[in-house]
């Protein structure tokens, strides 16, 4: 059974397998990894997970002194299939939700399932009535996922990240 969980240090080996599936130089969207993070050593991984967990936004009340996002790992039978993050503040470049699915778990509906769950959280927890979901203009699988979840294309725009499709999803 697929589930969304908070980042967990017990899944170090599962994370390494997930990361290896992407291969060197690939970008794992949804995980929140940046250049300061050492996710390859057990100690660095534990530090990164603690930082991720410290940034979790309480679901019931505002938290003005911490970043406003909720990261989740997409897990099935102890295997990390990917990650998805809900941003609690509007972001015109990245939108409200970012996700990535490891190559071996694609084309199984994992992204659609995770996005559906996260859209429900955006509506129920944050009270949003619509969300912005951009993706790279050439990322047709992501565009299809967004469209399956109700995304309506606003247009394709030039951004600092390259051309992006901008979708809006109505949550009402």
From TrEMBL:
Keyword Chloroplast annotated: no
Keywords: Acyltransferase, Transferase
Top-rank taxon: Bacteria
EC number: 2.3.1.-
SUPFAM superfamilies (UniProt xref): Acyl-CoA N-acyltransferases (Nat)
Gene Ontology molecular function: any one: acyltransferase activity, transferring groups other than amino-acyl groups
InterPro entries named among the record's database cross-references: Acyl_CoA_acyltransferase, GNAT_dom
Positions of the N-acetyltransferase domain: 31-172
Pfam families per record: Acetyltransf_3
Presence of keyword Ribonucleoprotein: no
Identification of the protein by name: GNAT family N-acetyltransferase
Species, as recorded: Actinospica durhamensis
């Amino acid at each position: 059974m697929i589930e969304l969980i908070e980042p967990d240090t017990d899944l170090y080996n599962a994370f390494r397998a997930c990361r290896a599936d992407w291969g060197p130089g690939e970008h794992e969207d949804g995980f929140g990894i940046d250049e300061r993070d050492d996710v390859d050593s057990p100690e660095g991984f534990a530090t990164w997970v603690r930082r991720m967990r410290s940034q979790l936004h309480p679901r019931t009340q505002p938290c003005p002194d911490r970043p406003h996002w909720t990261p989740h790992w997409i897990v099935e039978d102890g295997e990390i299939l990917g990650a998805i993050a809900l941003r609690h503040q509007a972001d015109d470049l990245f939108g409200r939700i970012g996700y990535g699915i490891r190559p071996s778990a694609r084309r199984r509906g994992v992204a659609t399932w995770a996005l559906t769950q996260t859209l429900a959280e955006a509506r129920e927890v944050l009270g949003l009535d619509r969300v912005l979901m951009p993706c790279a203009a050439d990322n047709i699988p992501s565009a299809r996922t967004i469209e399956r979840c109700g995304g309506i294309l606003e247009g394709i725009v030039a951004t600092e990240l390259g051309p992006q499709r901008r979708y809006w999803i109505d949550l009402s």
